[in-house]
Amino acid sequence: MSKNVYFFGNGRADGTAEMRNLLGGKGANLAEMTNLGIPVPAGFTITTEVCTAYYQNNRQWPAGLEEEIRENMKKVEAAMGKGFGDVNNPLLVSVRSGARVSMPGMMDTILNLGLNDETVQGLIKSSGNERFAWDSYRRFIQMYSNVVLGADHSKFEAIIEEKKKERGVTLDNELTAEDLKDLVAQYKAWIKANLNREFPTDPWEQLRGAINAVFLSWMNPRAITYRKLHKIPEEWGTAVNVQAMVFGNMGDNSATGVAFTRNPSTGENVFYGEFLINAQGEDVVAGIRTPQEISLAASQQWAKENGISEEERKAKYPSLEEYMPECYQQLLELRKKLEGHYKDMQDIEFTIENRKLYMLQTRNGKRTGQAAIKIAVDMVEEGLIDKKTALLRVEPEQLDQLLHPMIDPKAKVTIVGKGLPASPGAAVGQVVFSAEDAERWHEQGHKVILVRTETSPEDISGMHVAQGILTARGGMTSHAAVVARGMGKCCVAGCGEAVVDEANKKVTINGHVFKEGDWMTLNGSTGDVILGQAPLVEPEIAGSFQTLMTWADEVRTLQVRTNADTPHDAKVARDFGAQGIGLCRTEHMFFGPEPERIKAVREMILAEDGEARKKALSKILPYQKADFIAIFETMKDLPVTIRLLDPPLHEFLPHDRKGQEEMAKEMGIPVEKVIEKVNALSEFNPMLGFRGCRLGIIYPEIFATQVQAIFEAACALAKKGQKVVPEVMIPLVGTTGELQKIREYSVKVAEEVMAREGVKLEYLIGTMIELPRAALIADQIAEYADFFSFGTNDMTQMTFGYSRDDAGRFLPTYVEQKILKDDVFQKLDQEGVGQLLEIGLTKGRATRPNLKVGICGEHGGDPSSIEFCHKIGMDYVSCSPYRVPIARLAAAQAELKNPRRK
Amino acid sequence: MSKNVYFFGNGRADGTAEMRNLLGGKGANLAEMTNLGIPVPAGFTITTEVCTAYYQNNRQWPAGLEEEIRENMKKVEAAMGKGFGDVNNPLLVSVRSGARVSMPGMMDTILNLGLNDETVQGLIKSSGNERFAWDSYRRFIQMYSNVVLGADHSKFEAIIEEKKKERGVTLDNELTAEDLKDLVAQYKAWIKANLNREFPTDPWEQLRGAINAVFLSWMNPRAITYRKLHKIPEEWGTAVNVQAMVFGNMGDNSATGVAFTRNPSTGENVFYGEFLINAQGEDVVAGIRTPQEISLAASQQWAKENGISEEERKAKYPSLEEYMPECYQQLLELRKKLEGHYKDMQDIEFTIENRKLYMLQTRNGKRTGQAAIKIAVDMVEEGLIDKKTALLRVEPEQLDQLLHPMIDPKAKVTIVGKGLPASPGAAVGQVVFSAEDAERWHEQGHKVILVRTETSPEDISGMHVAQGILTARGGMTSHAAVVARGMGKCCVAGCGEAVVDEANKKVTINGHVFKEGDWMTLNGSTGDVILGQAPLVEPEIAGSFQTLMTWADEVRTLQVRTNADTPHDAKVARDFGAQGIGLCRTEHMFFGPEPERIKAVREMILAEDGEARKKALSKILPYQKADFIAIFETMKDLPVTIRLLDPPLHEFLPHDRKGQEEMAKEMGIPVEKVIEKVNALSEFNPMLGFRGCRLGIIYPEIFATQVQAIFEAACALAKKGQKVVPEVMIPLVGTTGELQKIREYSVKVAEEVMAREGVKLEYLIGTMIELPRAALIADQIAEYADFFSFGTNDMTQMTFGYSRDDAGRFLPTYVEQKILKDDVFQKLDQEGVGQLLEIGLTKGRATRPNLKVGICGEHGGDPSSIEFCHKIGMDYVSCSPYRVPIARLAAAQAELKNPRRK
């Protein structure tokens, strides 16, 4: 017969951390700590195999299990110096489930098992605290009745309420030992009357019931649903952990606390923790009493900050270092031992029962991004871990916190609404409701928050000058969100609670009305909309950050480029380590800053024939050329991929009557003509309409002019001795014919410009792969493409048939109901869209083995998506400037997890 | 050395029809006819290999070619009894290119080669017609100078014009022999002066030049472009055909004519043709003189129809049977021989030179659909061909002509505009501009044509009562087109020339104004919009049609279902041989006929919560149930696939102010509330929005009600003893979770209904595969699907990123520029979308080997798409009722070409 029960205690455990499958996560960890010589309350683990056998065996215990349990209980009694059911010095135990992987909320814990009318007297004796003993007993009955006997929790609450009313008190802890004793009697009476049975008094019967309840919890509907959602096989089963109770609330020689082995906020290598004398674990968390600092230094610092004298501090709030120096020393040693063993910062829980220290839990501690970096880099320097481990230790997403201003975490703020955390950071400003107003207020020296129902390319100039953007509609990849992330500007998008009244210049959010000029604060990292001016803090980028980035660059094989449309964005990205521009959108250049730009664009759109169109385009040419010169200059010798015009033309026309009138006036044409054109260009589904390379087929002169501008810019710099390698990218290709034709005339224009300028440049002409069809026929497309750049925003839209601007009506529900694991516009859908990427890449490289392949959708900045791109063999990812460091780290992690280097 | 030149003439040819690759299409056919003993003017073919060698050999003739040509020319001279360059009886030849596949317009033909100042005299002698001879000579110089010497064609035209002015005449044929002789002299002088050379007088030099010109034409830009577009390899090369000229215009003993071996219009087995005495081939086609009938019977019939007396007929328009009885008899024999050999109706061209009959061409004759069927069936009965050949002989698309009324082909009509031939057939009616007007006029007994800028589901009832529909916007798969085809109703869509002024009830098409009540005729087969009332003819469906369909059904392995939403459509389709309904759209049922329907739907949409929604749905339930009962009853025991609600909800709300006011009034709510809801539901890209199964996830009660109606209907009929197998189809599934959840509650509803009704039904729950992602993860989806139905309309939209309603702005150009071979909404894009279908089917069957798979997009009625569906292994196609016979034939052909049956 195989071993069913694994003991841990007194520095020796039957199991180890490796036995997770057999002992469950909790059981294996308790065994591991015990083996490390860490003082853990003794106990034993019933294996997951027993659970499986229990179900296979018609819900009966396997033969011999009871004996094994009894043997192990004896070991626990010996280790703890108490007796299970002993009326003088009773051993109480907790019973908990513990599967291979954590399944939160699967079963409630049963504490204080072993109490009955006799043993409670023993507990009174050993604790010297009658109230504590009776309170423990009444809690046990309540918990056990609910979890094991199936009684409704609220029944007991009702009995307590009745008692409190009778005693004229309002809080549970105002009840006396006598009251609690009476409650125990009432509980038992209720059970007898309603469940038609006695509450079990035999500790062994209690234990059997509790163990069975854990087994049965494996099949409760909550657990079944959880397993289904997380694809956990039913046959894994759960282990059962039975562990001796220890009490930090047995008097002034007892205490309980939590600590981090380093500062989880800054990463500093100092011991950091709090404790409470004569308290239980939950008291520390509940915050009813002020916890005390563990170390003397921290305690003194705390007193200073709170204006408490050293005398008062010593008297009322001594540190553990002073109050129980021997326990403190022991903790210091454990801190070192745990970090040495787990090679990571630990978050520990401890309890001191009558001056004896017990560790209840240790786990890797949560930390801020800043702390994560500092700890990882410090630990390499301390020789605890290697660089590889350090790189894997920091969540790339955590870096985001370091790259934007934040709301002072200490500040109290009034959150009035919540939207999507569309672009991180925080912003404070005065509310305005149009791009023009934003510009006007900005010119007058105000900081503004631009509030719109939704934004469109016409709002770009207003977004540029705003501190932050709030929209009522649109998702994580709506125009506002994408543009704001590109600018590294705080944005809260799709705040459905906001009713924007642009005409009357006000927005109402859950009853709060903001008029033009009112102060508002946005938290783009959380989606919070905050009343007034919250204090901001600039993030401190410590030296460790730079160190970690250098290590990441040493490791990664995937290049990181940026999506940047302006010299400013390009500069930011370059400073953040971008290795080129992967996507330079040319359409944003069509709006401001000079009003002549959009005017010329509109002239082009209104043109009746190719000649008139060319004339208008010739006015746009010098602006585009200047833009490209500025960007090439900023990026120096790094590659720059420029995408030719992508959006439908109607995006450049005003859609409101006022704007149309202004345009008509400016262009000297009747407003009817403007309206007619707007109507003629309007589409049922613009996303699937006349845009991208379709423009370049119907109006070749548009693309030709852009190509001319690119090459004139490149030639101008080449003449000054700068190396420029322009990469021209054709958007929305779905057929070989489109690319072939556009490539043909683009090459012609490029060669003409170079001949005229007397300059010979290397250049590439490639395409976006953003339509399913393009991926499917990538072998043919690659014949005409020097590079592929996967546009995963559109690819996601087409593959799912989701419009990112409209999906808000169902996508959140899909994620909530787990129909989708994530928002597919944020994290690449590897299962579906990923197949198309892989097909496209494989087929493309089959035709052209050295085809350069990258990704330039929003997913280019998402760590899990970056890992996917690395795995399938892409050359680069391209993302918003502010996500470049995140991508660098994610790329390094991807290489470490899936090495390409031999 | 291999043979370079292949002779044909005098009943013996070196080549055969099988030698197409070597001799080109024309050469092989001339050889074949010669071998059949058909009197073909003698000649020879220089092989395609010579062309290739010519290019490989620096544009030199291979050694020995000249000798071979001379030898073969001798054989031609012998066969024709004339001499090449003979001054008394000159042999003239034509020189033509001839590649493996026909490449129209690659090179102009050179005729009359061999003429010079001496041989022209011989031609005068042998023809006895001086003017003819000089005219032939001057034409030859003109043609040769242009094609071989590269002279500009217009120069010679200018010289003729000058001559005509000088002679005071306006037509070429008013010039005399003397004039033409002078032209020859002027031409030669021009050549000398401008091309700096003499016009070649040596017939052999002429011939060498002509042969080289043919070779060189293979590499001219026109040919290169044509080959690129049609993927014809350059190395195929072209053959050169040199053939003796014969003349039907040598006098009254000469003639020329064309004939069909059977009537190409009706298919009747009678000889059918026309001829002209003393004329050239082009004169018959040009229609300058009235051609005469070949057979006496036809001649007499013609005279009768044209009121010509027998005497006049005999004198002026004798039949060939009377005029040259020996030639007529020879033609009759050739007719039999040709049909016996080619096993198909032939279209022949012949020339009689001095009472000697020559055949110049024979090819399979073009014919109407009716003729195609009759000929194919007749030929089986005559033992000429087998059933398989008969089935392959009829183009499925040709059947379309037989299934709709047509405009009388003899009628003269005034075409005022042209749109897309969106739904075939013809319609005459009085113009109306709204669905309501259509209904009102219809009730008053008028026939109406509904004219709209575009249609929407609100127009359905108006479309139902209209004879035909004309829209100004939308493509072949726009709402109007799809619905009209489904109804088998004539529709011209996307007529961009039509400016519809719905407010003032008029439409202007190229200056023609139609007001309400004006008569209009539509030709949905051609897209023509016609002024007034054109006469219509009802198609005659001969017995052969039924026979052919029976044969098709014997052969095919692919089932044919129909897309039908009403009992009427279902009945039509069943009569046409549909084997079930593959797509029954439920949304059309939400509109009329009873106004309570749409009212209840709108109540549902306005509902604030699930309860209110359920209440509204309960009003819809009985209507839906009644609809399903009617359809099930019509289809009897055949399967019916019902698709749950697919379109976005806003399609059910009025979008114009008037409609919104009416709705508000009817529902007793303020109009603002209606507008608010319309705005709330409006989407940027409705095609990619909140529709299909997304509705069924967010508002499960909608789908649940539909499922309830389906099963209540099925149970009601089952109780009456009818076998019903409902197939519930979930639209727009993109994730397994969607299907899993909707399946779960649908099964629950179905089981509840059946339990309540005490009936146990077989039923299937399946899904549309219409999103790229669904195809990519079809293995997972198949776990929850009893069947797949590919929705290729949406699949095409998503795969290409085309909105079918907006693609009109670029798709026609794409087809024109050959970027796309066809309109991908009409013919399935096998290359791209086809890959997804194959992936979906293969993955689906991997999970569920017996998965039933079909297609229900518009492509289900297109023959090439049907062949694809057959090839990849689908079980069925589903198409509009009126395309069912087409699909049956196409499916038979698919099986014959790609047998599934062993």
Automatic annotation (TrEMBL), chains A, B:
The lineage of its organism: Bacteria, Bacillati, Bacillota, Capillibacterium. The active site is at 479 (tele-phosphohistidine intermediate), 856 (proton donor). Substrate binds at residues 585, 643, 770, 791-794. Residues 21-58, 61-382 form the Pyruvate phosphate dikinase AMP/ATP-binding domain. It comes from Capillibacterium thermochitinicola. Keywords: ATP-binding, Kinase, Magnesium, Metal-binding, Nucleotide-binding, Pyruvate, Transferase. This is Pyruvate, phosphate dikinase. The keyword Nucleotide-binding applies. Its cofactor is Mg(2+). Mg(2+) binds at residues 770, 794. Belongs to the PEP-utilizing enzyme family. PANTHER family: PHOSPHOENOLPYRUVATE DIKINASE-RELATED, PYRUVATE, PHOSPHATE DIKINASE 1, CHLOROPLASTIC.
